[in-house]
Amino acid sequence: MSDTVPRPTLEAVAARAGVSRATVSRVVNGGDGVREPLVERVRQAVEELGYVPNQAARSLVTKRHDAVAVVIAEPETRVFADPFFALQLRGISKELTAHDNQLVLLLTEGRDDHTRVARYLAGGHVDGALVFSLHVDDPLPELIQGAGVPTVFGGRPGWGDGTRDVVYVDSDNRGGARAAVRHLVGLGRTRVAHITGPLDQTSAADRLQGYRDVMGDADPRLVVESDFTPGGGERAMRELLDRCPEVDAVFAANDLTASGVLRVLRERGRRVPEDVAVVGFDDMVPVAEQSDPPLTTVRQDIEEMGRIMTRLLLRSLDRRNTGGAAPDPVRPAPSGEVLPTTLVRRASA
Amino acid sequence: MSDTVPRPTLEAVAARAGVSRATVSRVVNGGDGVREPLVERVRQAVEELGYVPNQAARSLVTKRHDAVAVVIAEPETRVFADPFFALQLRGISKELTAHDNQLVLLLTEGRDDHTRVARYLAGGHVDGALVFSLHVDDPLPELIQGAGVPTVFGGRPGWGDGTRDVVYVDSDNRGGARAAVRHLVGLGRTRVAHITGPLDQTSAADRLQGYRDVMGDADPRLVVESDFTPGGGERAMRELLDRCPEVDAVFAANDLTASGVLRVLRERGRRVPEDVAVVGFDDMVPVAEQSDPPLTTVRQDIEEMGRIMTRLLLRSLDRRNTGGAAPDPVRPAPSGEVLPTTLVRRASA
């Protein structure tokens, strides 16, 4: 255990800088109303002594911890296996760092740990939370609301009637899916299949809805449920070829699923796109560009989603902190922000 | 913003369970001295009301937050690109979850953010910290000691004279490197090169030392410094082939580096292992097994390292909490635990 060296105090900094305790405190908390030469002397003393302000004391003044939690409602292993989360975290990390806020990622092994996460959120360790990857029957949103922490959700939450006062950022999953399927139909394909994501997530349900907007629900053999993973994509594609060998196009619910689909088609000797055209979703660049053949897909700006969520949260925390602006009587606060998606054509369709 | 529903209070739970406030408090904080039927009634009321104990109040009693920070002194992008960290986090996450402790991963964009990390650690949000991937001149250890948080380091810290009272868990990097190089020499190779990691990290410096234990420092052209990444491995291998085309074996400082080495050898038409034998380090299973040819490497148990670090930290926190056992007068507390490494033979050497 690193021995706990006594921490330099505010008093020690004041003595070293030759100023009052109050001046040090003001500088440490932002420097308002302190003359520049004094600020400089205090900063130097802070540096020389290696003084770390006590956040608990500091937050008594500012009522802020300058820390935001990120909660991904998936087991820790999936968080690191799926580049989707890395991209979202990249956007969040950049945005929080730009505002000198600490990113606090709360990892779990599974749903049994969600009560503990809520306890941490309720404990006054963060100013707000960004919450991802919720499944319809997940108790986490209730727990988080119980914890009383301002929250922005990633993806449209699937519970209730949608009128609850939640803020979320989402991509246009349904519109993107329609564009993908219309593209396949435009290529003259008549047996267009869809391999879905987990249908208890709104992103997967919305993409299925977009597929149905174009295809109706004529041939139920052409829709196979899967789980957003390459292995799941392989299994679903095998099942699809067994059920309906004449399939000539596949819209896969994400790029990882599409990578599994391409592997099975290669293994079965079907040419892409000549025999079967394939479209993915996400435009996860290393996956989509390096796949064989390179993948036509629906692009969503995952990193930007993370940034926008963060901005919405920080803005709302600022409003709270400045006493809270009166609610605008004309326009209610928007409950969701939906980012556009675009079809990116490569070789697979 | 999710509207902050009023949080159910301790009083509400007491009323629902028909017991006193004090009884609820005792049950919530571990249930000591409360009869089982009462415990049951309180638990039921807690569940029905969705009561989340106030961690701040709770920790006034237990002096614990049941939360441990993990700090990786690398930019967020590297944390997600290098499977090494995912494996370590897996071990930590499993162990913390088994003890109902929350894993709090503090991500940063770079060194400029380390002061903020130290501020968060000093703010009383976690009981202790696990700290990884320190570079020799990194100010983070000082900052963390200033924050006064019990800490276990991953990897032998490179600063000072090594006698400072720090606890760390490491792998036998030097012994593993010796085994790798002896294996290459045993195959009859005479031009055995080493592509190192970043030499401001002890793991890389120790592996170089192990190489020198066997090879001496006869031919300085055979040692090329690199950075533990596939791209770095490619660049270093090109340089090595330019400097010393007659090279017949490469010990790469980790498996990711080795993957870059194999790519360049293939590109240059050198057969592995016939023309050049290659050994890696880590035994990062998907990388090492799926490389072409499968990689001979030095195995370290990365996940187990994470687990052991966590156990050491939790044990030390328990000692603190129970008032601290008197220090053993005969045997001082060990400052480091070093795990064995083993050579795993596959096709590349």
UniProtKB/TrEMBL annotation, chains A, B:
Keyword Transcription regulation attributed: yes
Domain of life of the organism encoding this protein: Bacteria
Keyword DNA-binding carried by entry: yes
Keyword tags: DNA-binding, Transcription, Transcription regulation
Any coiled-coil regions, as ranges: none
GO molecular function terms attached to this record: DNA binding
Signal peptide feature range: none
Domain HTH lacI-type: 8-62
Region Disordered, residue ranges: 320-349
The name this protein goes by in its record: LacI family DNA-binding transcriptional regulator
Species of origin: Streptomyces galilaeus
Lineage: Bacteria, Bacillati, Actinomycetota, Actinomycetes, Kitasatosporales
